[in-house]
Write a structure and sequence with these properties.
2 domains; about 130 residues; 3 strands; globular
Length: about 130
């Protein structure tokens, strides 16, 4: 979480105020409810939406150690979600970190499951 929070810690306060006003004024009821219910942008243990404080349409981020992120991706995979669009900041560094630290762990976790299904990843770079 510290690295995630660091991404927005130095953002211009005026930008943050504009984004808060936009969220409060949105017609998207779900987005308003989410903003009211979360603390420190934490939607769940490893799901964070803090970038919405400074950028539009950034979505949510998986945060944590490579092991924590791999396990979170595994939980989605067990639900039948087998394609992920992975992105991060800074882009190139996070691509390398994910490819070298997270994906090998995820592949290993999937291989040791009793029932295996094909593993596929779609990676989109902004």
């Amino acid at each position: 979480m510290d690295a995630a929070d660091q991404l927005i810690s130095n953002a211009d306060p005026q930008v943050k105020a504009q984004r808060r006003a936009a969220i409060e004024g949105t017609a998207m009821v779900g987005q308003q409810a989410q903003a009211r219910q979360v603390e420190n942008h934490k939607l769940s243990q490893h799901l964070w939406n803090g970038l919405s404080e400074v950028r539009v349409n950034c979505g949510s981020a998986l945060v944590g150690t490579p092991e924590q992120v791999a396990n979170q991706l595994l939980s989605y995979w067990k639900l039948g979600i087998d394609e992920f669009i992975l992105s991060g900041f800074p882009h190139v560094e996070e691509c390398h970190r994910t490819a070298e630290q997270v994906l090998p762990l995820l592949k290993k976790l999937i291989r040791i499951l009793p029932i295996a299904k094909p593993l596929s990843f779609k990676i989109c770079l902004d």
